[in-house]
């Protein structure tokens, strides 16, 4: 009868209990009132009850059905509030993870500098997510943990929880954020604490990333342009440098080489030479956002061995 | 329009008296003709919006791309919302039945400002043209959702400016209608009709009108701020320009929560007229129903934050808005109890309008009770922005406002057009619509609880079952709606029988007039001695 499996975090109990109470009370009123209504329609049908009563109301009844529902809704409010309260009280010592949401992907950054596309968690350890957005509003939603909080540009929102069962869970974006909103997902992996520790330590802070890659990632370019050759909203960065591009310029089909000049123009005026098979106006100009110098780093990176 | 083949029709407001029919309709200041203009235009947009909804359901019948790519889907759900909210349900009952019956029910010959009334309709049409052209002009159909959340709406490349401007113009139409009704109710009541002798549909229109006048300007200004931000880079909402995205949400919901009451209060008013007529009994708790409309209108202003529990408001704001949200549920419950109590010891006949009314009460209860699930803080965190919300508001807006509209349409149709429809066929259409509606929306509650977010062009395979049945429901619902329209328009035109003055045995003033009424409604303005529910 109950449509969802129990939640697997410390916060789920309060939420699921509120669900049960709401479910019981809603069912009681819905079925009760519907039966009474249909019973009246049957019993006081003209055939069975030709002369209607002259009653115009009853003040005692009015008072009862003002006071009684008021008490019920106050009880429901109370349970909703009690189930919610712990969501805002973060325990001391919770592990902090920075969450970066952008169109249309998530990055999770741990205190030691390790970055990941998925959320790795230790079972029974409290974790606090500090969430920022690089562009529009997103909302981090993990149904199995019963947690959701919007990720709003210009402010840092937080959520916290303690995962209580080892397993793999869906992380979704719940606030509509454009073209690939429904594909903006990740996984949450809950592991035994020892296993998590070794995952976290498996990381070389000395390993330096190309400056161009860092710029590309910080500007959320990778939400639309993949690094591995797969086609997203925009074309992939893999093997892009010096490749032949079939583009439309001023309504004419031409073929150009993706050289330095072309790449610079495509970042600053993305809709001028539009590559075949990709929609117009999805990408906006980055002229005010990425400096000339940074564009040079990006082009340098595209030329590098890893991206050829 | 119906053919003028009976003496009653000959003398009625439907007769153009030899004038050019297009001029006689499009520039008429007769409240009844304006009501019918609204009925036709709203009916048209309801079909367009419904068709778009059907296309969305077909896309979602299975995971993966079925008939449209994600960008098209995002455009379709935006324009579906835009049309349904601003062109159908906000004007909805007050523009159609309010215009036609408010003056008649209070014993007046027209509204207070007939020319302003015509201007409202023209603004509505102008706004509609802008909304439709936003789909085809400029840089692509808007893809923001009808909520236009910033900063997405201030950054997206699609044609947002025209879309929000259309909503701005439609807002003016709504404000002018509200203003007109407030003055009409204050100044035009027949001699002897005190406030508490006024029928309850006018009461609900009066409460609605205050919301229209007081809340709509806020959203109008908010939409202009979006335009200013897009065109002149003035940073109201976008943090990269120094703005605050939550400011947008506050301003938007300060209007858009009360807007739900603009939609539902007149619906409550309509069923409050229908129940006593078919129960042949005085409405139970007249004053409680009248005052609960005002209570809803008043408290409804202070609950908007329940749309923003997860947006990053302070903990205090979250529980405060939740608390008031629960309080505003009480006046709606009072109405339900009074409606059911009116049936107690009545002498009931079950006709088509009454069937729709019973369905309204049932569906409205589901919508209202699931609203408590969303109002409670703990469960809201899980349900917010999921299919559960979609199901909830379709139960309120379609199951509530929509079914009340169908109830009102079948109730007043003989009065408006002077013809009686085929009631058997109307009942068959009702059953199909009722089944289709529940099949369409109920599964969305379940997949929403399981974590299916809303506004998703694609989804994980575990939600396939719910989506499949929902799409089946959409097909059933559309079939039923088409049958209803066939019955009311095509069949009645050919085979409808002339309507009596008072086919249901009602006591309110419209049933003292011919079917359809004369152009000036009353030959002599009646004097009122009691409220219209004394059976
Ligand atoms: Cu997102
Ligand atoms: Cu609301």
Task: Summarize the structure in words.
The complex is a heterodimer of chains A (308) and B (535). Chain A folds into three domains: 12-88, Helix Hairpins (Orthogonal Bundle); 95-201, Sandwich (Immunoglobulin-like); 211-307, Cytochrome Bc1 Complex, Chain D, domain 2, CATH 1.10.760. Helix content of chain A is 31%, strand content 22%. Chain A has six helices and 13 strands. Chain B has 17 helices and two strands. Classes of the chains: A alpha+beta (308), B mainly alpha (535). The site of one copper (II) ion has 4 residues of chain B, from helix 10.
Order of helices and strands of chain B: HHHHHHHHHHHHHHHEHHE
Top CATH class of chain B: Mainly Alpha
By CATH, the topology of the largest domain in chain A is Immunoglobulin-like
How many runs of DSSP E, i.e. beta strands of chain B? Answer: 2
Please bin the fraction of helical residues of chain A. 25-40%
Query: In angstroms, what separates the terminal alpha carbons of chain B?
Result: 34 Å
- Summarize the helix and strand pattern of chain A as letters: HHEEEEEEEEEEHHEEHEH
Name the chain pair whose interface involves the most residues: A-B, 85 and 93 residues
Question: For the terminal residues of chain A, how far apart are their CA atoms?
Answer: 55 Å
CATH homologous superfamily identity of the largest domain in chain A? Cupredoxins -  blue copper proteins
Concise overview:
The complex is a heterodimer of chains A (308) and B (535). Chain A is α+β, with helices and mostly antiparallel strands. Helices cover 31% and strands 22% of the residues of chain A.
Relevant terms:
heterodimer, A: about 300 residues, alpha+beta, Helix Hairpins, Immunoglobulin-like, Cytochrome Bc1 Complex, Chain D, domain 2, 3 domains, 5-stranded mixed beta sheet, 6 helices, 13 strands, about 30% helix, B: about 525 residues, mainly alpha, Cytochrome C Oxidase, Chain A, two-stranded antiparallel sheet, 17 helices, about 65% helix, binds copper (II) ion
């Amino acid at each position: 009868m109950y449509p969802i499996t129990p939640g697997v975090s410390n916060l789920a109990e309060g939420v699921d209990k509120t669900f049960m109470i709401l479910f019981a009370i809603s069912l009681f009123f819905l079925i009760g009132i519907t039966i009474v209504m249909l019973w009246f329609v049957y019993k006081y049908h003209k055939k069975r009850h030709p002369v209607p009563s002259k009653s115009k109301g009853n003040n005692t009844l009015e008072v009862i059905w003002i006071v009684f529902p008021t008490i019920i809704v106050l009880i429901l409010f109370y349970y909703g509030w009690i189930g919610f309260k712990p969501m805002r009280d973060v325990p001391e010592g919770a592990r902090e993870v920075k969450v970066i949401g952008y169109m249309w992907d998530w990055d999770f950054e741990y205190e030691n500098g390790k970055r990941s596309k998925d959320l790795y968690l230790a079972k029974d350890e409290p974790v606090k997510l500090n969430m920022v957005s690089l562009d529009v509003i997103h909302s981090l939603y993990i149904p199995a943990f019963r947690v959701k909080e919007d990720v709003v540009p210009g402010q840092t929102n937080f959520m916290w929880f303690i995962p209580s069962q080892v397993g793999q869970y869906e992380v979704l974006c719940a606030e509509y954020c454009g073209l690939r909103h429904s594909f903006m997902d990740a996984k949450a992996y809950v592991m035994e604490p020892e296993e998590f520790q070794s995952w976290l330590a498996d990381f070389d802070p000395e390993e330096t990333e190309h400056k161009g890659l860092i710029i590309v990632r910080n500007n959320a370019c990778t939400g639309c342009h993949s690094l591995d050759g797969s086609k997203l909203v925009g074309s992939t960065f893999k093997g892009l440098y010096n490749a032949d591009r079939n583009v439309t310029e001023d309504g004419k089909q031409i073929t150009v080489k993706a050289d330095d000049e072309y790449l610079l123009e495509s970042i600053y005026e993305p809709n001028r030479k539009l590559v075949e098979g990709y929609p117009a106006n999805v990408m906006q100009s980055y002229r005010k956002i990425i400096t000339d110098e940074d564009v040079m780093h990006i082009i340098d990176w595209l030329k590098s061995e890893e991206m050829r | 329009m119906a053919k003028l083949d009976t003496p009653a029709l000959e003398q009625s407001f439907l007769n153009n008296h030899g004038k050019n029919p297009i001029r006689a309709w499009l520039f008429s200041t007769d409240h009844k003709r304006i009501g019918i203009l609204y009925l036709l235009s709203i009916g048209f947009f309801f079909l367009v919006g419904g068709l778009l909804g059907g296309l969305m359901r077909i896309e979602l019948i299975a995971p993966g791309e079925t008939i449209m790519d994600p960008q098209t889907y995002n455009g379709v759900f935006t324009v579906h919302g835009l049309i349904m909210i601003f062109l159908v349900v906000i004007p909805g009952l007050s523009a159609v039945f309010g215009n036609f019956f408010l003056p008649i029910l209070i014993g007046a010959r027209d509204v207070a400002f007939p020319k302003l009334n015509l201007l409202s309709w023209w603004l509505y049409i102008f706004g509609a043209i802008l909304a439709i052209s936003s789909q085809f002009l400029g840089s692509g159909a808007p893809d923001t959702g009808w909520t236009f959340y910033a900063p997405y709406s201030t950054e997206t490349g699609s044609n947002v400016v025209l879309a929000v401007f259309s909503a701005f113009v439609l807002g003016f139409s709504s404000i002018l209608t509200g203003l007109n009704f407030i003055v009409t109710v204050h100044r035009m009541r027949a001699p002897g009709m005190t406030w508490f002798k006024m029928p309850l549909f006018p009461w609900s229109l009066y409460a609605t009108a205050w919301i229209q006048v007081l809340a709509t300007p806020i959203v109008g200004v908010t939409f202009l701020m979006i335009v200013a931000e897009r065109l002149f880079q003035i940073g109201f909402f976008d943090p990269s320009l120094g703005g605050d995205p939550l400011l947008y949400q506050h301003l938007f919901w300060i209007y858009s929560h009360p807007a739900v009451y603009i939609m539902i209060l007149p619906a409550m008013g309509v069923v409050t007229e229908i129940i006593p007529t078919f129960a042949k009994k005085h409405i139970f708790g007249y004053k409680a129903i009248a005052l609960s409309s005002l209570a809803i209108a008043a408290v409804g202003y202070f609950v908007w934050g329940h749309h923003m529990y997860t947006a990053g408001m302070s903990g205090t704001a979250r529980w405060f808005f939740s608390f008031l949200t629960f309080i505003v549920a009480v006046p709606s419950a009072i109405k339900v109890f009074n409606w059911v109590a009116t049936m107690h010891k009545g002498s009931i006949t079950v006709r088509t309008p009454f069937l729709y009314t019973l369905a309204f009460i049932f569906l409205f209860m589901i919508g209202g009770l699931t609203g408590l699930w969303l109002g409670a803080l703990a469960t809201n965190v899980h349900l917010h922005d999921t299919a559960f919300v979609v199901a909830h508001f379709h139960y309120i807006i379609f199951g509530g406002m929509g079914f009340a509209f169908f109830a009102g349409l079948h109730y007043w149709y003989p009065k408006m057009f002077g013809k009686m429809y085929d009631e058997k066929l109307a009942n068959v259409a009702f059953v199909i619509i009722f089944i289709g509606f529940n099949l369409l929306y109920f599964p969305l509650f379940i997949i929403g609880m399981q974590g299916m977010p809303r506004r998703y062009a694609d989804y994980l395979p575990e939600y396939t079952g719910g989506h499949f049945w929902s799409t089946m429901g959409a097909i059933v619902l559309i079939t039923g709606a088409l049958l209803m329209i066939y019955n009311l328009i095509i069949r009645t035109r050919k085979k409808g029988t002339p309507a009596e003055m008072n086919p249901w045995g009602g006591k309110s003033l419209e049933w003292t007039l011919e079917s359809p009424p004369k152009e000036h409604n009353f030959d002599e303005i009646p004097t009122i001695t009691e409220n219209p529910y004394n059976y």
